[in-house]
Every structure is written in C-alpha cells, then in structure tokens.
Amino acid sequence: MIKKYNNMSFLFGVPGLVLQIAGRFVGDGDVLSGLPLLMSLVGTVLLIVGLGYYAKAKGRHLAWGLMGLLSIIGLIVLACLKDRSVSESVEV
After folding, report:
1. What is the pTM of this model?
2. End-to-end CA distance of the chain
3. What confidence score (pLDDT) does residue 72 get?
4. Residues 6+ apart with CB under 8 A from 92
5. Cα(57)–Cα(88) distance, rounded to whole angstroms?
6. Exposure string over 9-48, b if 16+ CB within 10 A, otherwise e
C-alpha cells in the first residue's frame, strides 16, 4: 500500500464522514433544509475523494472511490480489493 495516498484518504475521508453524520443531527429532522443538506453533500464528496485515494493507495484507479455511493457495500468492496501497489520501500 502506498503510504502517501493512504494518508490522503484519511485526510479527506474522516472529515467527510464526520460532516455526513453532523448534517443528520444539525437539521432537527429536516434533512432538506439548507445547512444540513450542504453539510451532507460536502461530506459525501469528501468521503468519495477519500475512498478514491484509498483505492489509489492500493494501486487502483481513483474512480473506485465512487464505490462510496453504495454505502457499506462499497466500503466492504474497497476493503477487500487486492493490493496492486508496488511498495515504495522496494528498490529495483
């Protein structure tokens, strides 16, 4: 796994997940009002970018981050992907 991209995945993914959760609680049940909707959308985008970097850390294309749209199923698929990356510490 490529450490640089794995760190980037946490940098984007964790705040995205936090924003999604916070967006649900801020709205007092009205999910479609301004601030909660904005928080949820920004959180979703950040989470998908973070998952894209996680896929890139495993040597896959960034588009694999779209698996985040499938909720927990997408996360499981990404976690089960075989690591295709060439370790940075291996010298040829």
Report:
1. 0.83
2. 17
3. 78
4. none
5. 11
6. beebbeebbebbeebeebbeeeeeeeebeebbeebbebbb
